[in-house]
Design a protein that fits this description.
By secondary structure, this protein is of the alpha+beta class. Helices cover 29% and strands 32% of the residues. The strands form 2 sheets. Strands 1-2-3-5-6 form a 5-stranded mixed beta sheet. It has a 3-stranded antiparallel beta sheet with strand order 4-8-7.
């Protein structure tokens, strides 16, 4: 028996949510992998945050007790985008995320590009009368990143350990 219109709408919504959930997990797990790769030998442990609001990953140095909080945002234009030709992405933090996290890691999924920036360097904006903070990366027709993208691309060294 074929699904009716209500069932089709529900299936489409769940599929979109499942893709969003998968992308979030991919971004977080990929970031955990790279954070471990770059910082484990320097005495840092990497943890996924399950308890506190505003960030996804915690770097923790057991010797010094120092904590670094990181928010992860994953963006893609392959599915659900009106146009795959639109080569810009907005990695957006809420005010809570900006205040809680020390760094943003933005993953542009289809290009496998990681952009790492201190949250203090995000551009302050307003959306629906709420403060938001953005890193906007774009790419031209020749797949060259804008200056912001180049500045933060694979900028793992900016994480001050």
């Amino acid at each position: 028996m074929a699904p009716n219109n209500t069932e089709k709408k529900y299936i489409a919504q769940r599929t979109t949510q499942n893709i969003s959930d998968a992308l979030r997990e991919i971004g977080e797990l990929s970031s955990i992998f790279y954070l471990y790769y770059y910082f484990n030998k320097k005495g840092w442990s990497v943890y996924k945050n399950y308890d506190e609001k505003g960030y996804d990953i915690l770097l923790f140095n057991k010797k010094t007790g120092k904590k670094i909080k990181i928010e992860i945002k994953t963006r893609q234009k392959l599915i659900g985008s009106l146009s795959n030709k639109n080569k810009n992405v907005h990695f957006t933090l809420t005010e809570v995320e900006k205040n809680a996290a020390d760094y943003l890691i933005g993953l542009w999924y289809e290009y496998n590009m990681f952009f790492i920036t201190p949250t203090s360097e995000l551009k302050k904006m307003k959306s629906r009368n709420k403060k938001t903070y953005k890193l906007i990366v774009s790419m031209n027709e020749k797949n060259k990143l804008n200056s912001i993208g180049n500045r933060y691309l694979n900028n793992w060294k900016c994480i001050n350990v």
